[in-house]
Amino acid sequence: EVQLVESGGGLVQPGGSLRLSCAASGFTFGSYDMNWVRQAPDKGPEWVSGIDSADGRTLYAGSVKGRFTISRDNAKNTLYLQMNSLQPEDTAVYYCATNDGLKGPGTQVTVSK
C-alpha cells in the first residue's frame, strides 16, 4: 500500500522545537521530490519546504527560512522537518506530500504558552 504517515507533532511553547517525521511506504521514496505543507485553522494549505530527490537541494517558504530544516534518509524511507524557534503562527496540521498529490493524514503542531 502506498502511504505517508507523519509523526512528531505536539504542544510546544513559543521558542521551542519539534522534529517531525514522515514514514513512506509502497513506493520508491528516494526517487521522489518531497514536501512539507501545513494548514492552519480556517486557512488554506501553505507550502513550507521541499527537498529534491536527485541532489538533496532544499527550498523554504520565507515564513520558515532560517528556522526550519528539511532532510531525508532514503535508506529509512523517511522525511524529516526540524522546527526551531517555533511561534504561535506556526500552529497548523503538518503534512508530508509528493509533488503529484500523495499526502499523509498529518500531524498537529500547536505552539502556545
Q: What does the model show?
A:
Helices cover 0% and strands 50% of the residues. The protein contains no helices and ten strands. The strands form two sheets. The protein has a six-stranded mixed sheet with strand order 2-10-9-4-5-6, with no helix packed on it. The chain has a four-stranded antiparallel sheet with strand order 1-3-8-7, with no helix packed on it. A hairpin with a 4-residue loop joins β7 and β8 (78-83).
Helix-strand topology string: EEEEEEEEEE
Q: What structural class do you assign from the helix and strand content?
A: mainly beta
Number of strands: 10
The percent range for strand residues is over 45%
Count the DSSP helices: 0
- End-to-end separation in angstroms reads 39 Å
The helix content, as a percent range, equals under 10%
Low-confidence stretches: none
Spatial ordering of strands, largest sheet: 2-10-9-4-5-6
Tell me about the biggest sheet?
6 strands, mixed
Overall spatial form: globular
Mean pLDDT: 97
- The value of Rg in angstroms is 13 Å
Top keywords for this entry?
113 residues; 6-stranded mixed β-sheet
Set down the secondary structure blueprint:
Blueprint: E1 3-7, E2 10-12, E3 18-25, E4 34-39, E5 45-51, E6 58-60, E7 68-73, E8 78-83, E9 92-98, E10 107-111
Parallel strand pairs: 2-10
Antiparallel strand pairs: 1-3, 3-8, 4-5, 4-9, 5-6, 7-8, 9-10
Q: Summarize this, please?
A:
With 113 residues, the protein is mainly β.
